[in-house]
Protein 1
Amino acid sequence: MKKSALLGIIVIAVAIGVIVSTYADSSTYGNFTDAQKSDAELHVVGKLDLNKAIVYNPIQDANYFSFYVKDNQGKECKVVFNGTKPQDFEKSEQIVLVGKMVEGEFQASKILMKCPSKYNKDQVEVKTATSVQS
Amino acid sequence: MDTVFLGESLLPGKLGQFFVVLSFGTALLSTISYYFATNKDRPDDSWKKIARVAFSLNFLAVIGIGASLFYIIYNHLFEYHYAWAHSSKSLPVYYIISSFWEGQEGSFWLWTFWQSVLGLVLVFRAKIWESPVMTVLMLSQTFLASMLLGVEILGIRVGSSPFILLREAMQAPIFSRPDYLSLIDDGNGLNPLLQNYWMVIHPPTLFMGFAAMIVPFAFGIAGLWEKKYTEWIKAALPWALFAVMVLGAGIIMGSFWAYEALNFGGFWAWDPVENASLIPWLTLIAAVHVMLAFKKSGQAYFTSLFLVLISFILVLYASFLTRSGILGESSVHSFTDLGMFWQLFAYIAGFIVLALAMIIARWKALPFSKKEEETYSREFWLFVGSVMLTLACLQVLATTSIPVFNKIFGTEIAPPTQVVQHYNKWQLPFALVIAFISGFSQFLKYKKTETKKFYQQLIKSLAIAAILTAFAGYLTGIYSNPMFMLLTLTSLFSIVANADILYQAIKGKWKLAGSALAHIGFGFLLIGAMVAAATSKVVSVNSSGIGFGDEFAKSNNPRENIILYLNEPVKMDPYTVTYLGDSTSGPNTYYRVNYQVIDEKSGKIKESFDLYPNAQQNVKMRQIIASPDTRHYALKDIYTHVSSVPLKEEEKHEAHEGHSDEEDFGKPKVYQISLGDTIQIRDAVIVVKSVNRDAKVQNIPLKKGDVAVSLGLEIKDERKIYSAEPVFLIKGGNTYDFGKTVDDLGLKLRFTNILPQQNKLELTVFQKPKAEKKWIVMKAIMFPYINLFWGGAILMTIGFLLSIFRRNKELKTA
């Protein structure tokens, strides 16, 4: 067999391996209902519920952070994260949680936030003294 | 409609916008003229002259855009959206420079600027290649210039201008006032995370690397166009090396910035934005190797051409990923979407079509090599190594592109949940194969090698590497992981093999030094990255397990954050860590954290240092933005950041709805007591002075059969005596209790039950944790041997630089 043919076969095999592995390792976007059915970790996209308690009390436990998220189907669930409260948390427009359901609570291993970062916000801050009149 | 606005300074914006349009027009003119100059449309040089004039004007226009924009930002002209959105008055000059390229427009400008500078060098140096190469470069310049246009053509918005006024960019009632500008006090400022000295230099370097990638691409196209199928490779080689060096340095600077300024706790996170810059770098590195193989042996022509062309297309793909908003939720730090999806898409599509069309048109004439490479030849293994690099790149590309696949196929696949493990699983084997090849190919010669000598050298180097690996495995503690050991072995083998070459270089064959040094650097970089990532250790493991986190102690996640109270030392093996106070400088608060190593036997302090992790507080948003501080040693780093701090000027906490005030207290303690008992609590003593059997509760009339009992309590601490009288009430068969608080002591006392059988009363004591004390929550990580990673990167860059000199010299002498 020619070397180039052998190399070609190896390349194709690895390439297939890469694609299969990308697919195999990939996760799915779901909601809390899906999470309840599944044992695997998955991505849940939702919005933070600012009306419910966002608990991070480092004096009691520096590694406990809990909050409520409404998923895209409107189902709400308590989310518990084993760590500190991320920066900019309250401002997030959308939250992507990676984790799984444990006893009715969603245990997040990762929190990704999509923020309309302060530095891009579409609001003009005006001097407070003069802004009252219009 | 025609309001005259007061205080606006419109000239710099008008001038800037003029330069934007000028840069687009001249880039287009220059492209067209260079095209006709290449095709020798006229016998004289007139097209080339026009092209050069247009290029010069373009260069001036680009400088003009930069100068206008800098003037606007520097003078805090907040009537312009860009200045308002990205800077503020309090920024020092060097951060004004970083705010310049915080936005998409500024970074596009940076790209056009470098492309112009490279173009200038090419005009002077490229000689016969000037016209075709510059046609391609100026085509790219035209696309980039269009990104800054910000004008509407046939109802379609083309580009986004940095000179747009704030009142045009936003809708708000204040903009109907002529004096609106006097109300805008300050800009939004620069993202605090970007306020780092590396952010001054990292983006220009990275974009210089991106811009430089066009040059080898342009040479590739020029070679096909001018039917100089093989000559272009030699001319493009120094440029490819230059692009690889600069882009590599840019990536590493970004990595160092992430390590120094971000608190994700590491130097590489396989974030899509990081990957986007790595992908073209990997293909161009591969391209450089096959270009060498072709130069020496005539093999691997098509691979060289393909890799050179695809590298630039991948640069465009990278900018598409980070700027089009397609990464969306899968990346934390891409640019905000400016609605230029299709324009960016057109940029890539244009260059793909160009590359494909040229290849197809010239396919039959391409110098494919008919014969097979010898197994014992350097060109064969250069080729195999490049294929491996390309496969490694393919893996990164495949996973990074998941959001793109979703968009194309309408699927909803999420990226892997364990991203880092997913990448490492693939990249580690690739790295070890590549390291091994980069070692032994140094013992191979082009064309044919004497096998006996080859194996002698191979075995000698392998033996030395094996001894070093055993030593390194013992030292770093990675010996239990066979994959880590293998990577260490192959990397050390590559270092040893290349050190051999370097030794010969020092003895006189100077031209070998570049590649040897780059490979040695690469070997150290691999070992450093692997060891630092694999053996990094969270120092701040919270072992106390207090609070309501008990349920979590069971789960696998380590408790990586720890609370420190002011002046209360906490032991974190091997350090005793104390929070010693904070100081404020500008917007930053620096938390002084002292680390000590205390000898257990003698109690002597062996080592003591302070770290100052900082946080910017935003009281209004009730959040902090934290940056780490790191203690650098030769062999390890101690990295520390605060994860949570008390917010300053926090208003007195009031119990609001849906939020029980008992949440502020720690876990309650229940005591069964009788009259006269004393209870010892933290810092105080409670004495049960009296039991009052006919207590009254305000506003609640007692009926017959209702019982109200109160406890007369006396609470004594060192300074004062307090009293409290909680009430227990049975009314209509239900029980209620009315607790009392002692604010000074952070106490809440509830009389919660009467236990007639035991003849006891039940008192529940809530006590606030030591909130009065200052505290920080922090995380500390130890990164062993991380300097190998940075050091390796520096060596590699120097190696590239030497290689550029060598290949450039070859170009002149040839």
Protein 2
Amino acid sequence: MIEVDALRKSFVSRGGTIRAVDGVSFRARDGEITGLLGPNGAGKTTTLRMLYTLMRPDEGRVLVDGLDPGAQPSDVRRRLGVLPDARGVYKRLTARENIAYFGRLHGMDDAAITARVERLVAALGMQDFIDRRTEGFSQGQRTKTAIARALVHDPRNVVLDEPTNGLDVMTTRSLRQFLHGLKAEGRCVLFSSHIMQEVAALCDRIVVIARGRVVAQGTPDQLRAQTGQQNLEDAFVQVIGSEEGLFA
Amino acid sequence: MSAWWTVMRKELLDAFRDRRMVLIALVVMPLAVPLIIAGMGSIGSKRQAEKREGTLELPVIGAEHAPNLLAWLRTNDVAVLDPPADPDGAVRRQEYEVILRIDADYGADWRAGRPAGVEVIFDSSRPLQSGTTIARLRGLLATYDRQVGTLRLIARGVHPSVAQPLQVGQRDVATPESRFDLAQQMLPYLLLLLAFIGGMQLAIDATAGERERQSLEPLLATPASREAIISGKILATAAFTLLSLLVTLVMYRITFALVPAGRMDVTMTVSTDSIARLLVVILPVVLLGATVLTALAAYARSHREAQGYLPLLMFLPMLPTMYLMVSPVKTQLWMLAVPFLGQNQLILRVLRGEPVAAAEWAVNLGAGLLLAGCAWWLATRLYHREHLAASS
């Protein structure tokens, strides 16, 4: 369970202060897939970064399974499986070594890592390349490696920043099935996307973010009712106030 | 298993799979250092030997005034040449190392028993090139002076020892190890440079490179603390550098064990015991270098920016060597606490086979490790900066 309450974050740049996140509140429940939907630059990545303790909020509060990232950053990170926007892998290590490295950083022993890697390899379909060095991997193979690495410690909460970016149709499909599997296991899945169709196809609950604010949230049905639009796409355009960035 | 150990092992595995990095650190540098020193040493000693023992080419002005002196010089392996038109200029332009001018009154003075004038024209601003030749000519003139003086005294019935109140004997206490030549003065600098920035490639790869390749953010999302992560990277850099230094010193030992002793006028051998001591002396510099490099590279936005600091860092270990060259000093205890200067002094002393007292070890290692510790503390502070991880 991830709770976000009135989160704010500004960056000072040469052009002045940019309010990247300006009062974002939502709740991502266990056994549900929650989607953060918004155009590019809406503040999704910054919000997620404050969740996994990479950045400190200026104001507001985050709770992960009831823990405060500011007070217990290591415990919070232990409970999270994070696929950040940056998902580089070590190219001189094999996919398995990449995953095992993160397993060790999570304090797992070698037996537990081996067992867990076998499960992830099966679930993500990585049999063909698990023992190859990641140099020259396709985008899909890299992303799968990064996801396996993020989930090696079997976290209760899974945070994915634009997980389908750059993936082909087949890989995207298998990733969706994988996320449904995580949900069926009772985990809390939170992911961000700027692609409306993807959020619509996957999510139990949608949080629409624009210009650093939550402009609407609820189940797909609630959103349709709230806007009076039958079509989800029209509903999104209406709450965001523009068509910019919703289609990819 | 602690996180720093995991990070360190991963960075070392990563480094050892980077062929270029391994080749440079464990093959090229270990071969280059002994070759540079052996090369400089043998060229240097060969040239000095030539100047001491080869024929001395000497332009003489007014040669016709002193035929006996010139005949004597010729028997001492001096080739007398015609003088150039502009003797001062010729010496200054390095056309000749030294020119002898004989006074026009030389003959008259000689016959009258007055000191006859000769003049040595030389340029003292190039002691390395022409110092040996100048000293050789002065020595020859002094010998001639003494011989003729002795003969004159005997001709007058005076015992020559009357005019020799002193008999100066000489005893050189230099041991073969301590007879250093210029080439070997380079060794401490090369070792310190290697120790300080030898881990550059690894440090940049593990920090700026990690961010450029977008793997830093996932790493920071693991429970490992930032202190543990940066410490692991620093220690990996230090371990790799230390290994490179060890291989270099072993290669140095092998190289000079192979060179026939007669080819050099000084011994350049390093015992296994000395290698161990040298590594201990260098250890704080290795740790300091690894920390500074990691911190700088972590702070830099990119590979390129990190490499931009390189010239500045190369300059630091050079300072004490330069200082010691212009003013060679006897080691004071406080000097051993000065980074680089202290190490430089101790390396020289270990190489010269001089004993180092426990207090000196303590001051040197203590100061070095303290400084490395401060740098480490600063580096961990820097690593907590928020913008560090945000790559995009």
Protein 3
Amino acid sequence: MTEIPDKRIPAAVPWRVRAFVVAAILPVALFTAACLVYNAPASPAQIRLAGSVSDVMDPYFSQDWQLFAPTPGTSNDLLYLEVTLRQAGATKVLQTEPLEIEGAIDRTPRSMRLNPTKLPGVILAFQENAANYTQLAGQIQANYPPSQRAAQMKALLKNFDPTFRELQRFLSVRAASLYPDARIIAVRGTFKEQAIVPFSERYADPAPKEPITGVLQTAWMAYVPGVAD
Amino acid sequence: MRTLTHTLRGAVLNRLDRAVSRVAVREHRLIGTAMLRIVIGVGTVMYCLADYGSRQFFWGPNSYNAPAEAAKSIPHLGFSLFLWSNSQLWFELVFHATILVAVAFTIFGGRALTLVMAVFMWSLYYRNQDILEGGNNLVEILVIFLVFTVSNAYFAPGAKRRRERLRTDERPTISTATHNLAAYLIVFQTAVLYLTSGYWKIAGKVWQDGVAMYYISRASGFQMFSAYAHWMNNAYLGTAICYFTIFIELAFPFAILSSRAWVRKSVTVSVELLHLGIMVFMGLVCFGLLMIGADCACLRDEDYRSLWARARRLSTATAGRLQWSVRPAPEEQHA
């Protein structure tokens, strides 16, 4: 009786191919295991392994898929801009009324629906940072004795310094586009939020008007000329 | 005893060779990886062109996101060619090179070009991390794996010749094994994304309540059509879409392992439709496109062949019916 050879399998696999496949499967298996642990929900086991797994995954394979499953926000963010300026030919310094600028920015993608601008992403990032800053500042007020609060707040501000510098430059660009003929001196941003009408009240008549609540107001920041030129 | 050892060694080697042959003899998922290549290239070009007029504002040396601040937010071992110099000329050079490399990568593919593409893509994303949409995180990883695949065996100049060469060579090779292991990692990473995403959704109260779509449709930054918010007022429609999303995301990793082709194809097409909806109604065009590219890599070559055959049958049948409907009535012919 003769054995019918399996045509899918060549008679002999070269040793170098055998060795390569066996060696290559090791990092592949390592990535597979690390990726599963990295993405697993926090548990005592996951927390114990997290450090070693991060060594494998960071920075080139770092990932956060919770972004893909957000608990959608139940409020919309608002950003108000105030400016101190001198009108052309005038000597008196004026302070403008707070102007909500986020709504207009959020609508910009609609002008090019096939390939929309990423501009709303900038504001979204600022809003997230403002909310984080407010939360951490609140924790300092709640958890530290009065004698340590100033030092803690200083450290927090230092951590958020790049974000506020970015915001300063961003608000400077917006101010320059809003008041092109004026000499702008300083800008200030105020972050607020307005709750979305709850699902259960969506047909209420008259339509409920949700209150606007403050999140964070920045200090006056010097105008930065020449941004994005 | 010596014969037994010899037989045992032979059996182990035989098993090893069978396993190695499965990985090293024939390239799998050639069509999917080619489609992923095209989508990454087109997505990168679109990403640059969407804000081409505002490129100074987003990525330039005088951007609101100053180079010094951007450099601080790059993780250890990360890099961005954009931050190597603060000169305007360097910025214009790197930005336009990114577009050109993406176009060349879309058309030609190939391992060397994929590596260059990865460098420019990572550089672009790290230059300004404020405006990333999430899809970038997946392709940053997938493009590393794509470097090791044959991504130009379809939809590229010389693809037919390349395929013939691959088919004629039935010996196990290191190159084939590299391709297949990288293709496995692409599929695995995409599956993990859907599994994790589905898990977090099912654990979220608004998704359980079926009202997540209502709140998403009212987020001011993602409102492309007012009709979308209006439709999501409907409790039945909103709940159905919430549950459908969770179901297909959790099903995806298991579906692509299924031996039944219709399960693989239907779940993958459903996930792609989901992303098409995100592109149209939420305006996340680059995100949706990149996700569709990753989904494409998860179907097998035979799935694409059968889908193509079905599409051709359908178009033939439709053409036949149209011809029938425009043919003049017998009375008219007679007259």
